[in-house]
């Protein structure tokens, strides 16, 4: 995994900073997510009935696809050497553009849209993310994702 320093982050603004590996979203994953969230709508968990829907089969929950961003981020975005902890702060925008059919593969693309030093030991980052579906023109989702990088204040770059 590539590592960078806090001081390098502002220089990455506007750049794609990571592309994850493909993740297969199979029916087992969808069923387990349905159990965890108690969302057993037929388009997710009933292949026979879902085959008659406009989707032609079961599809992943939008929130399942969204939740995969954590794994995609962890494996593809450079690690900041000085980071002591990373925190999910939230989203400014999420759009579920295309359904993820059971058996599809998805991956995340991350572009650093903003980064601001806040307080003595915090960097707030905003990533424009897209979750692509293999062999599909439109993404599964797009989002503006805000995270917080905490670090020891003694590691704060000078001049910021």
TrEMBL record:
Name of the featured protein: MaoC family dehydratase
Organism: Neorhizobium lilium
Ranges where the MaoC-like domain occurs: 13-127
Annotated InterPro entries: HotDog_dom_sf, MaoC-like_dom, NodN-like
CDD domains: NodN (cd03450)
Any Pfam family the entry gives: MaoC_dehydratas
UniProt superkingdom: Bacteria
């Amino acid at each position: 995994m590539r590592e960078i320093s806090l001081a390098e982050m502002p220089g990455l603004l506007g750049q794609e900073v990571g592309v994850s590996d493909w993740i297969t979203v199979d029916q087992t994953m969808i069923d387990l997510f349905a159990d965890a969230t108690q969302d057993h709508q037929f388009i997710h968990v009933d292949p026979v009935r879902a085959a008659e829907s406009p989707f032609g089969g079961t599809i992943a929950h939008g929130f399942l696809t969204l939740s995969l961003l954590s794994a995609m981020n962890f494996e593809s975005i450079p690690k900041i050497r000085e980071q002591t902890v990373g925190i999910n702060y939230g989203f400014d925008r999420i759009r579920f553009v295309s359904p993820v059919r059971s058996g599809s593969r998805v991956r995340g693309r991350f572009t650093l849209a903003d980064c601001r030093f806040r307080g003595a030991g915090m960097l707030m980052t905003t990533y424009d993310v897209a979750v692509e579906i293999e062999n599909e023109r439109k993404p599964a989702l797009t989002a503006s994702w805000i995270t917080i990088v905490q670090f020891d204040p003694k590691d704060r770059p000078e001049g910021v």
